[in-house]
Amino acid sequence: MTQETSLKLARALDDAGLTDLATQARNDDFHDFFSDRYATPGIALASALLEADTPAALKLRERVIAGEFDASEAESEAWADSEDGRQTLKKLIGDTPTDE
Known about the structure:
It contains six helices and no strands. It is mostly helical.
């Protein structure tokens, strides 16, 4: 399922004439938490926009760097509640005691 911030990014990429990157956005390839393609999706997107080297791409790159298309709090929480999120957090912080 395409995340809402990915759809917002895809629309901006389409508006900038960057249809290939918009398709990747619709696949969540540039999403902070749901990207299966890039370990650092924001950096990958900023690099791709720099490589596109059009005025629209460079303006959009500034918006990306400013965080306009970062995952929303709801998307962050959804990921943290997912199996992938729980496993990743467990690897990062280890087992934590639960309140009983």
